[in-house]
Design goal:
Number of helices: 10
Radius of gyration: 19 Å
Number of domains: 2
């Protein structure tokens, strides 16, 4: 029997809570528990020594699709502490992944990874799709195929700053971050904002594997501000009343309207799979399904205290 290269990773352990304040269960699994990288070789790759050109045909032949995600970004993808097995992965993006699998007539296999590993796993062709609240960036578009947008935020300000309430009078613009510690999720579009849109720079830029880790650093005084999607920060604040943080008013990071929309990442050159995914996105957009999932899982995440 041919050997298959598989890096087994330890089971995700439910922690009592990631938040030291105990006001949220979003971090029921430590980000460090996720594998940074995994090696997986399909049978067809073993036979040929390289990935087949048509990944869509491979998916249909093997009968399952593998979807990489970082499950710490409610309501898009998160871990339900009340569930077990694969059912613990929930969220609007997880519904999307399973919807795509159902449309293809195959099984959906969720692969939890750190965010930077989600990106690299697609550029290297280890997994089929990256569905993890991916925003468009020119760098990503060069490294992988990006689907049509399937979700567009209704927030007037899409990306801003999460800060402590006591700093409201001292952080009123991005230029006032020159002597502050700023934290971002590694590999995210927010990391690009920190590089390109802080006119005076910052005293130190810290990178974390999960956005909620950045929120905690601000809350605990280990950082002064976290660049974040406003919708994510609002959900966190609603679930954690009294945490002493807020979204800095009137601070906005500029995004290109023509490239907006949350997207799916696919290995470069896999145009057959890209076309099929875009076709499925067109259908669910017309039916308004993703909007329903987003609303449903926003409410569910809030009920869990995420």
């Amino acid at each position: 029997m041919k050997k298959r290269m598989i890096c087994l990773y330890g089971a995700l352990a439910l922690a009592a809570a990631l938040l030291s304040t105990g006001c949220s269960v979003l971090g029921t699994v430590e980000a460090s528990a996720l594998p940074e990288t995994e090696t997986f070789m399909t049978e067809s790759e073993e036979d040929s020594g390289e990935a087949a050109a048509d990944r869509l045909s491979q998916i249909l032949e093997r009968g399952y699709i593998e979807v990489a995600t970082e499950p710490y970004f409610a309501p898009f993808e998160f871990i339900d502490p009340l569930a077990s097995g694969d059912e613990r992965y929930v969220g609007a993006d997880i519904e999307l992944a399973r919807y795509i699998a159902n449309k293809l007539g195959v099984e959906c296999r969720i692969v939890p990874l750190e965010f930077t590993a989600v990106l690299s796993s697609i550029t290297e062709g280890k997994y089929d799709l990256a569905i993890s609240a991916l925003a468009y960036s020119p760098q990503r578009a060069e490294a992988m195929e990006l689907s049509k947008g399937y979700y567009y935020t209704e927030d007037e300000i899409q990306y801003g700053l999460l800060i402590r309430e006591l700093d409201l009078e001292t952080i009123t613009s991005t230029s006032e971050l020159s002597d502050k510690v700023v934290v971002v999720q590694s590999g995210s579009i927010q990391e690009g904002f920190a590089t390109d849109q802080l006119p005076e720079g910052c005293a130190e830029l810290k990178r974390v594997s999960a956005t909620t880790d950045g929120f905690l650093m601000v809350q605990e005084g280990k950082a002064d501000a976290c660049i974040t999607a406003v919708s994510t920060a609002e959900l966190y604040l609603e679930a954690n009343e009294g945490c002493g943080m807020c979204i800095a008013p009137d601070i906005e990071f500029v995004v290109d309207e023509e490239t907006q929309g949350t997207r799916i990442g696919i290995k470069k050159g896999e145009t057959e799979l890209l076309d099929k995914v875009n076709e499925i996105i067109d259908g669910l957009t017309e039916e308004g399904l993703y909007t329903e999932w987003y609303r449903e899982y926003s409410e569910y995440a809030s009920s869990l205290g995420l």
